[in-house]
């Protein structure tokens, strides 16, 4: 298993992973976001987990934000999206992806990392906690401000972690 930064040549396989993570989003919207991320100047990044035969089995996308709920420093590294194909879960790939993004954030001066999830992804909160992220804010239905369209979820949670 190899963790590496995604490139334009990964676009089709990367898009497939993004579609699995965000199935309600159109491929056109997801592709547009990918193009923006690839053109980003060190403020956004995506890493992929690639198995020995070249299959992308997981991804993590991150950014630098000025602040995040429950974090005290600026800038803050932020997990924007995190996904491992179901058959590859429970092998530590998700952990390795998060650790790689945390290194990227530390290299850019961050001392905290943040993330969010909602009730549509119940395993996500457990995964965050297992990696040392602490819940900082929980919003009820109608109060979520993670992304447009998330008002229909039952709850959303923000997390923060100190980077050492």
Number of DSSP strand runs = 7
Strand percentage: 25-35%
Unreliable stretches: none
N/C terminus separation: 25 Å
* The CATH top-level class label: Alpha Beta
Query: Mean pLDDT, as a whole number?
Result: 90
Largest sheet: 7 strands, mixed
Summarize the structure.
With 164 residues, the chain is of the alpha+beta class. It has helices at 11-21, 27-39, 93-107, 122-130; strands at 2-5, 44-50, 56-65, 76-84, 112-118, 134-140, 155-162.
List the helices and strands and how they pair.
Blueprint: E1 2-5, H1 11-21, H2 27-39, E2 44-50, E3 56-65, E4 76-84, H3 93-107, E5 112-118, H4 122-130, E6 134-140, E7 155-162
Parallel strand pairs: 4-5
Antiparallel strand pairs: 1-2, 2-3, 3-4, 5-7, 6-7
Any overview of this molecule?
The protein is α+β, with helices and mostly antiparallel strands and 164 residues long. It has one domain: Aminopeptidase, CATH 3.40.630. It has helices at 11-21, 27-39, 93-107, 122-130, and strands spanning 2-5, 44-50, 56-65, 76-84, 112-118, 134-140, 155-162. Helix 1 (11-21) packs across helix 2. The protein is globular. The mean pLDDT is 90.
Question: Keywords for this structure?
Answer:
164 residues; alpha+beta; Aminopeptidase; seven-stranded mixed sheet; 4 helices; 7 strands
